């Protein structure tokens, strides 16, 4: 195959950092994390600045490896802007250069960007603050240990040495040494929750499958006890994926198993009222049928879901204790979560980065090996670039395999049917890049918007340790009968993620927060079943742009969620409550516990805080809905069968087909819907179409 895939794409620009930009970047990092005076035994911690451990140089490496052309150009523009007297005069009223300011003035400068009325200034602040602060606490030295861990009380090791995993589940892959032409009945793009199911079901039905996965394949034996290393390996854009304005940090799994490899294992069946809504309002028939119930049960069994591994670590137990103290009903208002884990025995603190013990039943241990045993072939580190379309729909998938040595080979997979399962960002991007623009492709993005409240306890919480997610408070999921609301869960918070979310009043205060509160704080998240919808589009270089903003009703729900979460944590004994607004609500008890008056101050201040973009840190690990399914081609991208309205023999089997947010952790719903769509693919293949 002589034609290069690069002919179909605008070549990326090469933008190197100038010496002046590198100095500016170092100065900014050292302002976010400065060297300050501090007493023993933490004088070295206080005296250590970001550049002392190479935070600035690591940011350069991340940008070169992970950022697209547009994001790279914008970062260069930001670095030049802060050094431009003219731009600073225009944006801030003072003709200054950042590097010419004294250290205190630099901190005030960055604080002005954090609090600015100009959205792009707030975005610029967040771009650099998150990178600098998270890397300072996550980046290991050459010896594998971050020098700040001992001070903040964090340990990064496997409590029990992992055993070698079962080799009968290891995946073999095609490793190209030249451009390749392959052929199969079906090309499945993506090996996460939906792609794993599709590959397994279609190959098991007797049709040949080739699976293309843009990320790498990580076995249990190659999982590292390193937040930094595993975030780079197993998350989209090395964990730096965001909405276009940076108002949402997006955590999307990447690599074999996708989200099933890195998620926190909360397994919830799709709620009956959601299935009724999808069936009656969007015409997705059969969701209340015995057949779809069997789909859900088959997934439940394949993942070996149970509640025997749902022990309550202190992070989860705070939700449990607080709910009991408030008189909530166990099993009605709050629940033990079922999880796809077997034999964990609470040995590991790194579930969110893969499972070194092969106890997490991600699809790398069941459906993907099952597909391979039936004959499926895999290519990892192989990104689907465009779809080759013709009169009868899909002809081939054009992809590119990139080795670790930087060598690229073109791959063409001729197929009768293609199944897109790259997730709610990559699936619409691939369609748009291939010229498929009919219908609302890229529209209807849902995120289950998520923020957090930290409750500081008298005892150590160590929010990163133990089972990551074993309790959910669901009392407010249907707020006032609207069908929308919020729920609460615990999140495992390793130091990089915790530091990224922690508000930054100034460098000393951020350090003080990590030193004094990290080990004692819960990481309690509030998730919203939203009304808002976002959009995925393409930039000029064929890369994703993600647009999303909360409407007023959803902003009010988020405020209520923060308030009610504060009540639960206070009832559990929290002696302080802190939100993750840029200007945080931080209420500390005068005594051992928060009083009614102190609690009222918390509620009042939360009510007053803005939720405009980058005024409050928000996340999403549930990316859904950008190619919505329905029975009306005018408002849906995908038919109820899973086939695109506009392209025959092209199916979608991931969370992008959700017409609305389901309001529960979505893994089981994704996989059950993918199983349903797989039957449509098999029926099409057996009918001889294509």
Any overview of this molecule?
- With 690 residues, this protein is α+β, with helices and mostly antiparallel strands.
- It has three domains: 5-152, no CATH class; 177-219 and 272-304 and 346-441 and 627-686, FAD/NAD(P)-binding domain, CATH 3.50.50.60; 450-620, no CATH class.
- Helix content is 34%, strand content 15%.
- It has 21 helices and 21 strands.
- The strands form five sheets. Strands 1, 2, 7, 8, 9, 10 and 21 form a seven-stranded mixed β-sheet that branches.
- Strand 9 and strand 10 (408-420) form a beta hairpin.
- The longest helix is centred in the N-terminal third of the chain and has 20 residues, at 119-138.
- The radius of gyration is 25 Å and the shape is globular.
Fraction in helix: 25-40%
Q: Per CATH, what is the topology of the largest domain? A: FAD/NAD(P)-binding domain
Residue-averaged pLDDT: 94
Number of strands: 21
Shape: globular
Per DSSP, the total helix count is 21
Low-confidence stretches: 1-13
Gyration radius from CA atoms, angstroms? 25 Å
Largest beta-sheet details:
7 strands, mixed
Distance between the termini: 24 Å
Please give the CATH architecture of the largest domain: 3-Layer(bba) Sandwich
CATH homologous superfamily heading of the largest domain:
FAD/NAD(P)-binding domain
Our count of domains comes out at 3
Measured by DSSP, the beta-strand proportion falls in 15-25%
């Amino acid at each position: 195959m002589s034609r290069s895939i690069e002919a179909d794409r605008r070549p990326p620009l090469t933008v190197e950092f100038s010496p002046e930009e590198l100095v500016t970047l170092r100065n900014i990092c050292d302002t976010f994390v400065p060297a300050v005076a501090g007493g023993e035994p933490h004088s070295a911690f206080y005296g250590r600045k970001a550049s002392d451990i190479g935070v600035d140089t690591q940011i350069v490496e991340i940008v070169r490896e992970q950022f697209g052309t547009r994001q790279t150009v914008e970062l260069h523009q930001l670095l030049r802007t802060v050094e431009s007297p003219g731009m600073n005069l225009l944006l801030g009223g003072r003709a200054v250069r950042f590097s010419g300011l004294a250290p205190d003035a630099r901190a005030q400068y960055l604080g002005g960007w954090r609090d600015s009325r100009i959205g792009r200034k707030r975005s610029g602040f967040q771009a650099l603050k998150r990178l600098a602060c998270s890397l300072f606490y996550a980046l290991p030295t050459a010896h594998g240990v971050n020098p700040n861990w001992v001070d903040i009380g964090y340990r990064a090791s496997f409590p029990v040495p992992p055993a070698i995993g079962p080799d009968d589940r290891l995946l073999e892959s095609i490793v190209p040494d030249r451009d390749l032409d392959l052929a199969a009945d079906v090309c499945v793009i993506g090996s996460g929750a939906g792609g794993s199911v599709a590959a397994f079901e279609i190959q098991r039905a007797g049709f040949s499958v080739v699976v293309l996965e843009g990320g790498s394949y990580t076995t249990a034996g190659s999982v590292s006890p390193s937040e930094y290393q595993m975030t780079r390996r197993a998350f989209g854009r090395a964990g730096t994926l965001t909405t276009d304005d940076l108002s949402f940090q997006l955590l999307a799994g990447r690599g074999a198993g996708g989200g099933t490899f890195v998620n926190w294992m909360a397994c919830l069946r799709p709620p009956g009222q959601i299935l009724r809504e999808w069936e009656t309002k969007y015409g997705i028939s059969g969701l209340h049928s015995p057949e779809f119930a069997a789909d859900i049960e088959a997934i439940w069994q394949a993942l070996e879901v149970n509640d025997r591994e749902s022990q309550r670590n202190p992070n989860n137990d705070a939700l449990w204790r607080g709910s009991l103290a408030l008189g909530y009903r166990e099993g009605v208002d709050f629940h033990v979560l079922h999880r796809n884990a077997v034999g964990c025995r609470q040995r590991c603190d790194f579930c969110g980065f893969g499972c070194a013990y092969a106890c997490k039943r991600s699809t790398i241990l069941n459906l993907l090996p099952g597909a391979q045993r039936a004959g499926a072939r895999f290519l990892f580190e192989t990104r689907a670039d465009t779809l080759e379309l013709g009169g009868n729909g899909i002809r081939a998938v054009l992809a590119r395999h990139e080795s670790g040595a930087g060598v690229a080979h073109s791959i063409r997979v001729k197929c009768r049917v293609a199944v897109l399962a790259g997730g709610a960002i990559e699936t619409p991007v691939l369609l748009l890049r291939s010229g498929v623009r009919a219908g609302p492709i890229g529209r209807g993005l849902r995120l289950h918007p998520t923020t957090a409240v930290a409750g500081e306890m008298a005892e150590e919480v160590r929010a990163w340790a133990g089972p990551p997610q074993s309790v959910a408070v669901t009392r407010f999921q249907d707020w006032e009968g609207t069908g929308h609301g919020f729920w609460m869960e615990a999140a495992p918070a390793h130091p990089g993620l915790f530091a990224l979310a922690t508000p930054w009043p100034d460098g000393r205060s951020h350090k003080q927060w990590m030193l004094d509160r990290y080990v004692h704080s819960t990481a309690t998240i509030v998730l919203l079943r939203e009304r808002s919808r976002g959009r995925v589009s393409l930039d000029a270089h064929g890369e994703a742009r993600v647009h999303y903003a909360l409407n007023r009703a959803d902003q009010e729900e988020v405020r209520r969620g923060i308030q009610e979460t504060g009540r639960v944590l206070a009832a559990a004994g929290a002696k302080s409550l802190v939100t993750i607004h840029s200007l945080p609500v931080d209420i500390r008890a005068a005594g051992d516990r928060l009083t009614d008056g102190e609690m009222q101050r918390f509620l009042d201040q939360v009510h007053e805080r803005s939720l405009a973009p980058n005024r409050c840190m928000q996340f999403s690990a549930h990316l859904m809905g950008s190619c919505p399914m329905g029975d009306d081609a005018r408002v849906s991208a995908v038919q109820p069968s899973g086939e695109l309205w506009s392209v025959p023999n092209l199916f979608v089997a991931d969370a992008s087909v959700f017409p609305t947010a389901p309001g529960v952790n979505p893994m089981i719903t994704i996989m059950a819907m993918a199983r349903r769509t797989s039957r449509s693919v098999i029926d099409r293949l057996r009918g001889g179409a294509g």
